[in-house]
Amino acid sequence: MSMRGHSGVSAELAAVDGRRRINMDKVMTGICFVLLLIIVVIPIVMIIYNAFFNEGRLEIEMFRTQMTDSKNLDAMFNTLKIAIGATVLGTIMGVFYAWLLGRSDIPAKGLMRALFNIPYMFPPFLGAMAWDMMFNGRSGYINKWLASVFHLESMPININSVWGIIFVEVSYYFPFVFMQVVSALERMDPTLEESARIAGARQHQVIWKITLPLVKPAISAGALLILTTSLAHFGVPSILGYAKGIYTLPTRIYAVIYNSGGSFDGIRQGAALSVMLVIVVSLALILQNRILSAGSYDIIKGKSMRPTLIKLRGAKIPLFLLAIFTLVLIVIVPLVMIVLISFLKAYGLPLQFKNFTLAQYQKVFSANGTIDSIRNSLFASITAGVVCMFLGTLVAYVVQKIRPKGKEVLEVVSMLPYAIPGTVLSIGVILAWSGRIFGINLYNTIWIILVAYLARYLSFSMKTSSAALLQVHSSLEEAARVCGASHTEGLADITLPLIRPAMVSGFFLIFLPAMREVTTSILLYGPYTRTLGVQIYSLRDAGMIPQAAALATVAIGIIIVLNTIVTHVTKDRKGV
Amino acid sequence: MADQIILRNVTKKFTTKTLGDIVAVDNFNLQVHEGECFSFLGPSGCGKSTTLRMIAGFEDLTEGEIELCGRLVSSSRKNLYVPPEERGLGMVFQAFAVWPHMNVFENVAFPLRIAKVNKTDIDRRVAEALHHTSLTGLEKTFPGDLSGGQQQRIALARAIVTNPKVMLLDEPLSNLDPKLRETMRFEIKALQRKFNFTIIFVTHDQSEAMAISDRMMVCDMGRIMQIDTPENLYNKPCNRFVHNFLGESTFIRVVVKDGRAYPAGHMDQALDVAVPKDAADEMVVATRPNEIALTGPCEGGFASRIEKRIFLTDRTEYLIPVGDQLLKVQTPHRITFSEGEACCVHFTEPMWYPADDEEAEKERARRQLV
Questions:
Q1: How far is CA B55 from CA A405, B6, B21, B40, in A?
Q2: Fewer CB within 10 A of the end CB, N or C, for chain B?
């Protein structure tokens, strides 16, 4: 019996139940299939259908025009340039700092590690806003200052360029690699490196021949995350590139739909571009898979011995200062800039105390929609978090424990949105839920945003719950059955409480990014359903930069408070 | 025989956040001879691993100096520290530490590649090392596909491929199952005979240490307790700790009064032991469970009764009350007493140690936390 694994046993017990009354497992499986069909499959099918069909007829012409349009091709090349640049640089930066904090004797490690995680929760599009304020090719504050100090003819730095976009993306995406690699280094058996020293290898040879190859799976996982996130990213390229006519596929999709005034033709063109974007992302994933096929290996072994820390000696202080400088540059400077601008009477005025006022905060909060946007964001992200938490756990339970026929389909479908850019998902949701199916029209309501969030974030909670369920050995539920509990009671009293902490972290994993979301909601919002991110974006777009900065300051405040709460709540977790 | 490894007054201090300063290794002095198999034995936290890591060069020392093959490698006085890669050692770790991203051949060839040995020599020497460790034919296999025993053989092959004079073995057998452990022990000894290296063997398993070593060092709480051959350590332990750590021991607390020893809490019958002249008022009498004779009728022994009988695989164990303590006695199966039966206990050549040292126990408990 034990050879068959826990899931098999669970399924057998379920079968025993089923002979007596309604089979609850079958009901759960059914619910999963139906919900995933509605949430994930229909929007995706709608995109593909509309890209190639028009009023029921196959029509390749529109797709072909879009694919050969030079503007679209430019956007595609930009997308690739930016994604590859951000991935390469972000990976190098992430690995370097992970090694520095994980293996060297650099001071203040604990604090630095915490600080290096901040860029991860800092919304990149707010970062882009701040960098635009400083280094805008025409009017950046620091640019103007540099030009006047050094008597320059033109602005020294232009952040509104492909390289500018890459720079900003790198500074917020490098933690993907950093966090993966730091934890891999921590779990790594130090004797793997020590035995290389004994074999005669010098410190730098150990790094290149042993340490880096061993953490390669972690590096690749992080790099993949940067690559897919950057390919699908809307915020930074739209803020920095839009005005200069630098488009990426996600911003191009937005522009096409926006310029068409939301007409069906525009949306169809967007759908065609979406197919293009999905193809690019898929190719990237396949390429990545090829490079990484070396696979992963078990490096977590041995007794817990502290790794020998490499003495940086003379380089210690310079490297420490470099790390501090990096943190200041990518965290503190943008933050200070946003706060300062939020106090300005008008954008463009010198940053002097006499130009400061609190009026922007008053204006932004008395303005139409600001309070609404915070409320909308809270509603959509909390609801999405809660629903996904339960739905993700349900899918995870069905896939891991019930293992029905077609569980692979279930798994793939629920993970699919993870690889599909938010922009694309939005178009699918628009096509699906603006009256074309059963006359259900959610367009311009908060519900369409919610549906999009559900599709986008379901895989997050499904992943965490899956990992937790794998840890719950079926003998625990079996013990409950022996004690007289029914299948349902065993599930409710044993399994669910054990994975509750994982469910809670799944909720926050959705709630936090959803709170600052722009990519999806920018295509879905209606007059009364702006989200916080959209509101900041539109204020800035309308030229009310200090007001946007004020709201951004508030948003960052909310994020910091929420993060503190999350860290506090998830600190002492029982269970698995 | 020349001394190949010399430790002079070696001391290592750590500062821990929770417990303050810990002297992990306190003034170690020892000489290991060429071709010897020398074990460091002791409970966890005794300083044996730290000492090994100082010899290997992974830890610098706080005070003292270490000499390897006539060359000074660590010295606090001269502020000298030779990094591990320049010490020319072979080392095998507990968790094997074979590199999962290299196949068997590459793992073993690594030290030679680093030393820039030419290709034909690499092929020849790796083949030789694999032959001696019975790994021939597995060159292209990755460690992840091999068993624990095979992985440890890779580590051994990698250690002998450079033909080092000194081999450090850090609990190399404790991740293997008992049967395999014994086989590997023989293989290590066979390799030593073949290549004639000096072994330092770190372990907390006394029977393993006794079986493999020419001499061993027993240490506890950062101090050397005794350095001697396995026989002498077993037969003439210098203190209670060593007595207890090597082989099975049974201890009786006694009160010495008028030249006779009474078990604590039982002043009406004395033990039939000769009390040494310098005995203090409270002492501990130590013996091995199999060195105590049991008879039925009592003539000159200590009269008691069998409290519990435990049938072990190769002998019978009795627990016998002596005062308020329980004495453990082991006999061959043929001498059979039943539970509750009266019996007579005869001590043969017991050892005498000072009474319990509570401070030492506290210190040991503290170290376990580090």
A1: 60, 10, 22, 12
A2: N
Q: Give percent of chain A above pLDDT 90.
A: 17
**B45 close to A (CB below 8 A):** no
Query: Does residue B99 belong to the interface with chain A, where contact is any CB pair within 8 Å?
Result: yes
Q: Do A197 and B162 touch (CB under 8 A)?
A: no
Residue of B nearest to A190 (CA): B97
Gap between the Cα atoms of A242 and A235, Å rounded: 10
DSSP state of A186: H
CB atoms within 10 A of CB A576: 15
Assess if residue A382 is contained within a domain: no
Residues of B in contact with A309 (CB under 8 A): none
What is the pLDDT averaged over residues A68-73?
87
Question: Residue A366 in 3-state DSSP?
Answer: helix
Structure tokens at B198: 């000096």
Min distance A191 CA to chain B CA atoms (Å): 6
pLDDT exceeds 90 at position A355: no
Report the CATH number that the domain containing residue A62 is assigned in CATH: 1.10.3720.10
Number of compact structural domains in chain A: 1
Domain of residue A300: give its range: 58-307
pLDDT at B325: 87
Q: Name the CA dihedral angle for A534, A535, A539, A545, rounded to a multiple of 10 degrees.
A: -90
Q: Is B48 an interface residue toward A (CB < 8 Å)?
A: no
Closest residue in chain A to residue B50, using alpha carbons only:
A305
pLDDT tens digit string along B197-249?
999 999 988 888 999 999 999 999 899 999 999 999 999 998 888 998 888 88
Task: Say which residue the tokens 């009064």 belong to.
Answer: B257
How far apart CA B171 and CA A212 sit, in angstroms, is 27
* B56 and A CB contact within 8 Å: yes
DSSP assignment of A418-479 equals: HHS-HHHHHHHHHHHTBTTSTT-B-TTSHHHHHHHHHHHHHHHHHHHHHHHHHHS-HHHHHH
Query: How many angstroms separate the CA atoms of A387 and A395, rounded?
Result: 12
Domain assignment present for A324: no
Per-residue pLDDT reduced to its tens digit, A554-569 = 988 888 888 788 777 7
Contacts of A301 in chain B (CB under 8 A): 95-96
Task: Nearest by CB to B93, from A195, A214, A294: name it.
Answer: A195
Which residues from A are below 8 Å from B when comparing CB atoms?
189, 191-192, 194-203, 205, 209-210, 213-214, 216, 294, 297-299, 301-303, 308
B contacts of A294 (beta carbons < 8 Å): 101
B83 in contact with chain A, both atoms CB, cutoff 8 A: yes
What domains lie within chain B, and their CATH numbers?
Answer: 3-240 (3.40.50.300), 248-354 (2.40.50.140)
Residues A471-519 have pLDDT tens digits of 887 778 778 777 877 778 888 888 888 888 888 888 888 888 888 888 8
**Interface contact flag, B89 A198, Cβ < 8 Å:** yes
Please spell the DSSP secondary structure of B165-228, one letter per residue: SEEEEESTTTTS-HHHHHHHHHHHHHHHHHH--EEEEEES-HHHHHHH-SEEEEEETTEEEEEE
Chain B residues whose CB is inside 8 A of the A303 CB are 94-95
Question: What average pLDDT does range A49-61 have in this prediction?
Answer: 81
Instruction: Supply the DSSP symbol for A294.
Output: T
Residue A126 belongs to a domain:
yes
Distance from CA of A192 to the nearest CA of B (A): 5
Write down the residue that tokens 């990976």 correspond to: A91
Rg, Å, chain B Cα set:
25
Whole-Å CA distances, A177 to A110, A218, B18, B141? 18, 7, 32, 30
Write down the pLDDT at residue A17: 54
Residue A108 located in a structural domain: yes
A61 Cβ contact list (under 8 Å, min separation 6)? none
Query: For B93, which residue in chain A has the nearest alpha carbon?
Result: A191
